[in-house]
């Protein structure tokens, strides 16, 4: 692959490498999902799933809207639509920038096909859903990343949507809640992905300058460039139990420092003990916790 010249990169940055499609033709499944009455989790059609923590087979119908293992309480991964259902007051979520989709800024081979596959699989156009809602009657902006879309990797559209969410929250004087889950920067967009870290961080700083509250909810796994930027910039950093939170993977760290890593390394509980996380909150308690935090900080 030929690397782009500086001039190309600059042009890319100015022109912004994504396209906006009309929302009515977008692949977003958020609104249709929210209209459905069922609480069923979004797992494939098999009747059983295996819990990776206790290794028990779990009957699909036993998994409630909170997506917890009925045997051991493990927190399974959730889609943005499922998160909205357990976080936002019913009928209050309004989606922002649903039609934003990537335009393959680096000309990465077959990237378009990968994106299309991820869109079909997840039912959304990119790895984050943003908007505003009410939580326990408190207005807030919200951004929810999705591990089902290329492992929540951050490319130019993810960065742009989160940046816009912060900018709009600043304009409207709203606090913002961000659910993170990510494998890190998206390699198919190279430097474009990496610059999102600085871009989002800048928008976070302006939101902060306006005296507005930013709450992060870290979910499993949150790694790479997302941990190295906005996941660690919240005024309050909550985490779900046992979530993997780190920058590089354990194998890389172990090979680099040539030492065995401590038990529970990079999990929420370890990060709480080491000051990276303010509180670990069980998923059923999250809405209550967020409501309390928003109420305490409302003006
Ligand atoms: Zn389990």
Question: Describe it for me?
Answer:
The protein has 299 residues and is an alpha/beta fold. It folds into two domains: 45-76, no CATH class; 78-296, 2-enoyl-CoA Hydratase, Chain A, domain 1 (Alpha-Beta Complex), CATH 3.90.226.10. It is built from ten helices and eleven strands. A hairpin with a 2-residue loop joins strand 6 (128-135) and strand 7 (138-145). Helix 5 packs parallel to helix 6. The radius of gyration is 19 Å and the shape is globular. Zinc ion binds at residues 51, 53-54, 56, 69, 71-72, 74.
**How many domain modules?**
2
CATH architecture descriptor text of the largest domain: Alpha-Beta Complex
Percent of residues in beta strands: 15-25%
The percent of residues in helical segments reads 25-40%
In the sheet with the most strands, the strands line up as 4-6-7-8-9-10-11
Average the pLDDT over all residues and give the rounded result: 89
Order of helices and strands: HEHEEHEEHEEHEHEHEHHEH
Structural class: alpha/beta
CATH topology of the largest domain: 2-enoyl-CoA Hydratase, Chain A, domain 1
- What is the rounded Rg? 19 Å
Straight-line distance between termini: 52 Å
Q: Name every ligand kind in the structure.
A: zinc ion
CATH superfamily of the largest domain: 2-enoyl-CoA Hydratase, Chain A, domain 1
Topology readout:
Blueprint: H1 6-15, E1 18-20, H2 30-35, E2 48-50, E3 57-59, H3 80-87, E4 94-96, E5 100-102, H4 111-122, E6 128-135, E7 138-145, H5 156-172, E8 176-182, H6 190-209, E9 214-222, H7 224-227, E10 236-239, H8 250-257, H9 268-273, E11 279-280, H10 286-296
Parallel strand pairs: 7-8, 8-9, 9-10, 10-11
Antiparallel strand pairs: 1-5, 2-3, 4-6, 6-7
Helix pairs in contact: 5-6
Bound molecules: zinc ion.
Zinc ion binds at residues 51, 53-54, 56, 69, 71-72, 74.
């Amino acid at each position: 692959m030929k690397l782009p010249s500086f001039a190309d990169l600059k042009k890319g940055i100015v022109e912004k490498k994504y396209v906006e499609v009309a929302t009515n033709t977008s692949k977003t499944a958020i609104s249709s999902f929210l209209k459905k009455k069922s609480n069923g989790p979004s797992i494939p059609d098999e009747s059983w799933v295996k819990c990776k923590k206790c290794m028990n087979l779990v009957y699909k119908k036993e998994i409630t809207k909170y997506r917890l293992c009925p045997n051991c309480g493990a927190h399974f991964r959730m889609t943005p639509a499922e998160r909205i259902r357990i976080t936002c007051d019913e009928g209050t979520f309004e989606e922002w920038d649903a039609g934003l989709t990537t335009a393959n800024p680096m000309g990465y081979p077959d990237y378009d096909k990968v994106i299309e596959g991820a869109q079909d699989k997840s039912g959304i156009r990119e790895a984050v859903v943003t908007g505003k809602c009410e939580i326990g009657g408190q207005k807030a902006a919200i951004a929810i990343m999705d591990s089902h879309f290329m492992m929540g990797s951050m490319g130019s559209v993810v960065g742009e949507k989160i940046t816009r969410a912060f900018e709009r929250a600043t304009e409207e004087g709203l606090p913002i809640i961000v659910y993170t889950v990510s494998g890190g920067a998206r390699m198919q967009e190279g430097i474009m992905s990496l610059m999102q870290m600085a871009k989002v961080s800048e928008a976070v700083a302006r939101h902060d300058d306006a005296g507005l509250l930013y709450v992060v909810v870290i979910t499993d796994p949150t790694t790479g460039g997302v941990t190295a930027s906005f996941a660690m910039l919240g005024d309050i950093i909550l985490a779900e139990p046992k979530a993997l939170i780190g920058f590089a993977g354990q194998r890389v760290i172990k090979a680099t420092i040539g030492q065995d890593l401590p038990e529970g390394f990079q999990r929420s509980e370890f990060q709480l003990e080491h000051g990276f996380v303010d509180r670990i909150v069980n998923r059923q308690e999250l809405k209550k916790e967020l409501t309390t935090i928003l109420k305490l900080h409302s003006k």
